[in-house]
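Form 7-S
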Amino acid sequence: MTNTIPTKMIGDTGVALPPTQSELPYDESTPGDEISIALPPTQAELPYDDNTNMESQRHKVQIELLIDTLLPWLDQRPDGYVGGNMFVYYSLVQARNRDFKGPDFFVVLDVPKGERTSWVTWEEGKAPDIIIELLSNTTAAADKDEKKLVYQNKMRVPEYFWFDPFDPNDFAGFEMQNLVYQPISPNAQGQLISKVLGLALVKWQGDYKGINNITWLRWATLDGQLLPNSEEIAELEKQRAEQEKQRADNAESQLKQVAANLLKQGMPVEQVAQITGLPESQVAELGD
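Output:
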């Protein structure tokens, strides 16, 4: 005989939640009885879209810049995940109350790489290591109070930062010490250091994705070297290719000059070609 514990649904999503303490038996069941209890919902079963948009294009592009610059750095590690503007599920109570809002940007180390639709801590085994919220007029109060307390008391996120894309001076960071967030003091260059990543968060003025001459939040090495974005990486690769081509052209020009000098000294074309590595037809042209 099986006694089935009634399950509750997450709104109209069709996702069943496990029973609460008050719904579970608290005395011994009749011998032979079995109790069927719903397991926690998986990533595939939880909602990952609330049909809301970001505050502005600048907020969206700022998230892309933080992710874009960190991904090549993360590619050098065998583990880790970076996400942005997606749900982070940290408790079944959160799912039961339809509290699906997630951070603007987060990083998790020591987890397998791969795509996620949302971050489910009971599946992954841990919460994010770093969270960054981008402030706006409508979210600043919650980001500085309510969300900060959630990240500190419920998720135990080691480091938390906030930044206002429209007011770059509103930039702060906190690290967990004795289960309480303590402010991270800026260094002499005004950078906030992430001890978890061994990187710095810096304010940089420039152009990105068609938004020009504003102050962005970016990742940098501890010695101040910016982690490049995809556009900068492409430009660096283009410059390297041009430099390599120039070196090759210069080397070929020098070989041709050597070949021409050897021909003037009366050395046979075949021997000059063997010494320089140039094709005999090309060496012969130099002697014409």
